[in-house]
Amino acid sequence: MTKSLSDIIQGCLDGNAEDQEILYNTFSAKMFGLCLQYTNEYEEAKDILQEGFIRVFTNLNQYNQKGPFEGWIRRIMINTALEEYRDKHYLARVDDEIEKRKEIIEVDVVDDLSAQELMKFIHDLSPKYRMVFNLYAIEGYSHKEISVLLNISEGTSKSNLSRARTILQEKIFHYSKIANKVVS
Q1: What is the chain's mean pLDDT, rounded?
Q2: Which residue, 134, 165, 175, 184, shows the most beta carbons closer than 10 Å to its own?
Q3: pTM for the predicted model, two decimal places
Q4: Do residues 83 and 121 both lie within one domain?
Q5: How far is CA 43 from CA 8, 34, 36, 48, in A?
């Protein structure tokens, strides 16, 4: 008989190691993928995942069951990744000036990109650009929320997103040129 998520959560709250293992196994793969979006290092992503699950189990009594449990875990993992990011001092000197907008390159090749190729392009962004891009474009945070999470101004958040998009457009454009040469 399969246990419900509520029963598993209650078992974890009661200190049942079997339920803790079930909860971990249920969400660890997806959360590891999320952790990899915030770091270039496989081992660092594993550390973030481990620390995140420690926080999940430690704070499980704070989950109020009003929202989706997976969303609650995602928030913990993202916050853990952001703290790791801050601890590594990637944000030590963030330039607050907005860069001049570059002309946007329209590229139709995006449809031809696999999700894996696009994720590699995102993963190759510098940490400050990748963080803002992931939080804004993938997780749906506002620039105001990002500015609080990363301790940067809203202008810097907008600038970093703009720069990330420009870099991604350039990579996609370069990819399309290579793809067109192969086809020709």
Answers
A1: 80
A2: 134
A3: 0.58
A4: no
A5: 28, 14, 10, 9
